[in-house]
Design a protein that fits this description.
Blueprint: E1 5-10, E2 16-22, E3 31-34, H1 45-51, E4 57-61, H2 79-93, E5 98-103, H3 105-116, E6 121-127, H4 135-144, E7 150-151, H5 154-165, H6 174-184, E8 185-187, E9 193-195, H7 202-205, H8 216-221, E10 228-233, H9 241-250, E11 254-259, H10 271-282
Parallel strand pairs: 3-4, 3-5, 5-6, 6-10, 10-11
Antiparallel strand pairs: 1-2, 2-4, 7-9, 8-9
Helix pairs in contact: 2-3, 5-6
Length: 285
């Protein structure tokens, strides 16, 4: 596993937020890794194992996830607040040019960053999300987010997560589910295995439109002129093939790649994803 250092910064409303810093070339823009709704910096371990050294990676725990502080006001668990947190990170690290890798919610944030800070974004990867989200996928997410669960052992956690996600990852074996459990969960003080996020992140998501809150087509359009990549899981119920095609038609620089036999979201370690990422990075000057 690639070595990293833990970094922290402060939000405008006084939360201590965490990121993993994987060292890499200072001659290239760093890769900012933004995870999905219930995910954290650990989701990018496989990406970092492959790219760190050649590239610097900054893998963020959004507020309420991983080692970042939980918000006092759950309504701050929203894209515009996450954007402010990321802008504070840029200021803390003096980042003036970067590559964004965004999975699901992180992809929404990537489009929002393109809309608000286009001049500093060197390239972008949007992983299994788009300006139009499928109702089936939204309903599925609303059905599980914010519902607390716990297990006595990592093996029990892996089997529970497998039961809930088998349709999205039909090729997974127990070893894969154990690895996913350790990305998604933590060992609580009680000795039980629990999800590694604040259950209150579900509060804004219960509000229609709370999953985005802005016109993501406008954000997508701002990627024009930038090397960019859209990955779509072949089994995704959140991003349709039709929407992915439309996204590629709107932005000439956006390469659209389907990762077969996985649902939302690809881990970025699949062979098709690796090839596409390498091609994207090769386009960054």
């Amino acid at each position: 596993m690639a070595e990293y250092t833990d970094g922290f910064w402060w939000s405008k409303d006084g939360l201590r937020l965490h990121y993993r810093n994987y060292a890499g070339s200072t001659d290239r823009p760093p890769i900012l890794c933004l995870p999905g709704l219930t995910r954290n910096a650990r989701d990018f371990e496989a990406v970092a194992d492959r790219l760190a050294g050649d590239w610097r990676l900054i893998c963020v725990d959004l507020r309420g996830r991983g080692e970042s502080a939980y918000a006092k006001d759950p309504m701050t668990y929203a894209p515009l607040t996450y954007l402010q947190d990321i802008e504070a990170l840029f200021a803390e690290l003096a980042i003036t040019r970067y590559i964004a890798f965004g999975t699901s919610l992180g992809g929404i944030l990537t489009m929002l960053l393109a809309a608000t800070a286009r001049e500093t974004m060197a390239a972008a990867l949007i992983n299994d999300v788009g300006p139009l989200l499928e109702p089936a996928g939204i309903d599925r997410i609303r059905g599980y987010v914010g519902k607390s669960q716990s297990w006595p052992t990592w093996l029990h956690a892996a089997r529970g997560i497998a039961e809930a996600n088998a349709a999205a990852f039909p090729g997974y074996v127990l070893e894969d589910w154990l690895a996913m459990a350790k990305r998604l969960c933590r060992l609580a003080a009680s000795g039980r295995i629990v999800f590694d996020y604040d259950m209150k992140i579900a509060e804004p998501f219960k509000i229609p439109g709370g999953e985005a809150g802005f016109d993501m087509w406008a954000g997508l359009d701002k990627l024009a002129g930038r090397p960019s990549l859209l990955l779509r899981g072949g089994l995704s119920d959140l991003l349709s093939a039709a929407t992915a095609t439309k996204m590629g038609e709107r932005v000439a620089e956006l390469a659209v790649v389907t990762v077969p036999d996985v649902g939302p979201a690809p881990t970025l370690d699949e062979p098709a994803a690796r090839i596409a990422i390498d091609q994207l990075l090769a386009r960054v000057s």
